[in-house]
Every structure is written in C-alpha cells, then in structure tokens.
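Long-time lurker, first post. I've been practising inverse folding by hand and with some scripts of my own, and I keep getting stuck on stretches where the structure tokens seem ambiguous. Below is the full token string for one chain I'm working on. Before anyone asks, I'm not after the true native sequence, just a reasonable design that respects the backbone. If someone could post their per-position residues I'd love to compare against what I wrote down in my notebook.
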C-alpha cells in the first residue's frame, strides 16, 4: 500500500514577543482581536498565525475562566484567563501549562487507491475542569484534509479528519498526560466532555465514557453514560430521572444507584412527592447538598397559577430510602 505524506499548516502558534505576525487562511473564525491583544498585553505572547480556538469556560469555584489551547514552540500549550477589565479589555492569567512532547506538524498514514491528500490545518479544541487545587484538561488535536468529503460533525469538524486526543491532569502541581485512543475512520461525530468523579478521579467522554485516575491512568470503561450522576464510589453513582410534561404520571421521580463499570442497577426508587400538586409542572431536579450518607434534592416546579415553587427530598445513598421535607 502506498503512503501519502500529509503536510499540515499549523493554525495556532503561540510564540514570544518579537516574532513576526503573519496571517493565514483558516476554515474557521478566529478569536476576537481584543482577546488576542489582551493576551499579548497580559502574558507577552503574540499570535503568529490566525487560529480557531474559542474560549471554553472553566469554573474555578468563584468565576468562569476562558480556556485557550494551542501550540507554543511546537508543544501543546494551555492557559486559563480571567477578564478583569472591559475598557480597556484586560485579562489576568490564572494558570498555564506547556507540554514536553513536540506535536507533529507532519503525519504519514497509509491511504487506499493511492489517493493524494494534503492536510491544510492543524486545529485544537479543549475542555477542562478545576477540582480543588487541581486541573484536568482534554485537548482534541485535529489534522484535516484539503480534499475532505465535506461531511462535518456538530462542531464543524470533518468526519474524515485524523484526531489526536490528549488528557492532561495537574494533580498537586505534578502534571500527568495520556493519549486517548480514537478509532479511525470516524463513523459518527463525537464530543469531548470531562467531569470530576470520586476521590480525585475523572470521567471523560470521547467515543464512549471512561474513568481515569488523578495520574491520568485508565481505570475502566463505563457501560452506560453517567447522566446526572453523583459519585458515591469509584465505580458507582446516584442518578435520577424526572418527566417535564404536565400529565397525570408526570410527577413520578426515579432515583437510581448504578454501577457504571458493570452497567448494573444496585437499587431504584420511584415516587411522587406528596406536596407537589397534580397540575404542577416539574422544571428540574438537582442535588443541592450532601452528607456521608444522604443526598439532598430540590424539585423546582411551576404551579397552575404560574408561581414557581420548590420542594425538597432526601435519599439515603446506601438503601435508596426517600424522606420528604415539608
């Protein structure tokens, strides 16, 4: 089988002040100029090529920070910034990380039928979470082809692109990395998600859900998605279901304890709150607090009169027994 050498043009390069500014064509919209100028003023970095990296919000417990990822001197770079001024626009740097491993600007793969293909941009998107004093990021590096099929996912990325996904976890000041396996060619769009889990572990979505340790080591693959899941152990979590239509059965709420590694239910409790009127609509249900043995929930409802009213209940995480707050 013949091999075609795929040549990339790096769309995002972050270099020290003093490098020349150039403009390159990108298939995506670049960041707003005020943000780039604020970055230069804040951390002394200059954009050599226009890039496609939208700010992604990371909540640090106090405020939402803008997450930017790209390449600096040929290596993966991540930064978190807080907007501290509107006029003029200024940003404060909260966190930066630079990888040790160079990111290839050229890749070679085997192609059928001697098809010539040329990569025309290297792209990066990121998701991140803050867990206490620790950070976790998943970065999707995309090599796309000039003669792409034109079929894209919900985020505008070609399905025939080559994806290189990296997990970076900074735990107590020590960063660990891992490459996330992605099956090629892509048959369906996939999104990236990352969320904190039990005992400084993380759940990561990339063609399925996976649990990783604080050292970025794969622990297991989840057999079912952790929708609304609240961790009670490394493998188990509490999740809940509720309808939002105004029908006679619409007040039924189910709370489940699930073993995500095995894909099995430990217990399931279904009930209606005795104080919620029959003609009320449930807007949402959420966990509001916890103890070592219980989860406390709030039900937000809209009454027939249009008034919004909240109701509460508590679930024992071991037994599944529900108690109501009147």
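-- Answer (accepted) --
I ran through it position by position. Result:
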């Amino acid at each position: 089988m013949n091999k075609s050498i795929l040549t990339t043009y790096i769309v995002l390069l972050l270099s020290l002040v003093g490098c020349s500014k150039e403009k390159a064509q990108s298939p995506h919209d670049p960041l707003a100029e005020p943000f780039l100028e604020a970055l230069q003023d804040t951390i002394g970095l200059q954009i050599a090529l226009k890039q496609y990296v939208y700010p992604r919000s990371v909540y640090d417990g106090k405020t939402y920070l803008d997450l930017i990822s790209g390449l600096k001197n040929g290596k993966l770079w991540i930064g978190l910034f807080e907007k501290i001024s509107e006029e003029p626009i200024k940003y404060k740097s909260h966190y930066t990380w630079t990888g040790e491993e160079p990111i290839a600007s050229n890749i070679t793969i085997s192609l059928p039928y001697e098809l010539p293909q040329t990569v025309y941009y290297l792209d990066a998107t990121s998701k991140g979470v803050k867990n206490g004093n620790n950070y976790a990021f998943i970065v999707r590096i995309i090599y796309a082809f000039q003669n792409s099929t034109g079929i894209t996912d919900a985020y505008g990325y070609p399905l025939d692109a080559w994806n290189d996904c990296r997990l970076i976890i900074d735990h107590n000041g020590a960063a660990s990395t891992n490459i996330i396996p992605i099956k090629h060619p892509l048959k369906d769009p996939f999104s990236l998600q990352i969320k904190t889990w039990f005992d400084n572990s993380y759940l990561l979505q990339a063609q399925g859900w996976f649990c990783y340790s604080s050292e970025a080591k794969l622990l297991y693959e989840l057999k079912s998605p952790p929708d609304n899941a609240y961790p009670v152990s490394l493998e188990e979590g509490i999740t809940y279901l509720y309808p939002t239509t105004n029908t006679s059965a619409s007040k039924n709420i189910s709370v489940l304890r699930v073993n995500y590694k095995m894909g099995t239910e430990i217990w399931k409790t279904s009930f209606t709150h005795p104080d919620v009127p029959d003609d009320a609509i449930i807007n949402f249900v959420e966990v509001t607090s916890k103890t070592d043995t219980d989860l406390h929930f709030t039900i937000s409802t809209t009454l027939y009169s249009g008034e919004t009213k909240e109701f509460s209940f508590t679930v024992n995480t071991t037994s599944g027994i529900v108690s109501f707050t009147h």
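A couple of notes from the structure itself: The longest strand covers residues 90-102. Confidence is low (pLDDT under 50) at residues 1-33, 43-53. Happy to go over any region you disagree with.
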